[in-house]
Design a protein that fits this description.
The protein has 311 residues and is of the alpha/beta class. Helix content is 31%, strand content 20%.
């Protein structure tokens, strides 16, 4: 599936076509909620969900994975009570809440990164953000135009989905209004991006880093095989030491240029299952799981150190 254009957002039309009651008029089942999230965060959110549900018998949480713009739209229409996202709401989305007489809260939970991956045969390549900008602005189109590029042929940019957080982030980072004219391919999911890059030496893939950053996950280890995770720099005249890969510390210290914030936005402003889940992520076991998944928690997990003074 080729991407001929970027976001075709029907969010405002969808909201306008219905007349939702205000949150104060609704009756909510505090034993059941739906959470929407971009599939870029599935490995991390699946682990948080599984551990939370193990401690919460009799409750039901449905997690639905959609491209980020669709996930936010689900929350605006109150199909989902919480959404995991990499951005705050824009002015039009805030107006939707105002029109419904509803409110929301935003919680930063982690710093994440978009990993740039290439075929294992293209292991000598490094990128500056200037070079990436030239690629996304169609000034560099072939691998042999890049220093270290040992592959012949045209660069194929590979993303998961046309409305995904990965593509939206890269477009914003490099000032793109659309992707018209680019040799770009939508694989369908982050895992399919990895599989496509593994099989196509000309491909340059962009994925959520938590798909390959959990050192204890068999899936993460399997997906990392046969790939080159590329180092990137913001500097104009870099040395090799100036390039950073999306390792946890370099994401957290924002040395890796393609870092981004991760938030939970909730329209559940009352005590209940939604607030319990948020507290679990922000203040309870969540930071430990986020850290295990290779991301940088917004609030580091508390660690207890017992010192034995008896000799």
């Amino acid at each position: 599936m080729r991407i001929s254009s970027f976001f075709v957002i029907m969010m405002m039309l969808l909201v306008a076509c219905s007349s939702p009651k205000s949150d104060s008029q609704r009756q909510y089942d505090n034993n059941s909620i739906t959470i929407a999230a971009d599939e870029a965060f599935q490995p991390m959110l699946d682990q948080i969900y599984q551990t939370f549900m193990a401690t919460t018998p009799g409750k039901t949480i449905k997690v639905t994975y959609r491209p980020e713009e669709e996930a936010i739209s689900l929350m605006l229409r109150d199909t989902a009570r919480l959404v995991l996202t990499t951005r705050e709401l824009n002015e039009d989305e805030k107006k939707v809440f105002t029109s419904q007489g509803a409110t929301y809260k935003l919680y930063p939970i982690a710093t994440d990164g978009v990993a740039l991956i290439t075929h294992e045969s293209n292991k000598d390549i490094l990128f500056s953000t200037d070079e990436l900008s030239q690629i996304f602005n169609n000034k560099v189109t072939a691998w042999n135009q890049l220093e270290g590029g040992n592959i012949q042929g045209k660069i194929t940019l590979v993303f998961d989905n046309a409305n995904s957080t990965n593509l939206r982030f890269v477009m914003k980072k490099f000032g793109l209004k659309n992707v018209n004219g680019l040799n770009i391919f939508a694989a369908g999911s982050n895992q399919k991006v990895i599989e496509y890059v593994r099989q196509n030496p000309n491909a340059m893939g962009f994925i959520g880093v938590n798909w390959i950053s959990d050192g204890e996950s068999p899936l993460s280890a399997k997906l990392s095989q046969g790939l080159n995770v590329v180092g990137i720099t913001d500097k104009k005249n870099p040395t090799k030491a100036d390039y950073y890969q999306p390792f946890q510390r370099d994401i957290g210290l924002k040395r890796y240029p393609l870092h981004r914030q991760v938030y939970i936005i909730s329209r559940d402003t009352r005590a209940g299952l939604g607030s319990d889940f948020i507290n679990y992520i922000v203040r309870d076991v969540g930071p430990l799981i986020i850290e295990k998944c290779g991301l940088w928690p917004a609030k580091p997990a508390n660690r207890e150190v017992i010192i034995n003074t008896k000799l």
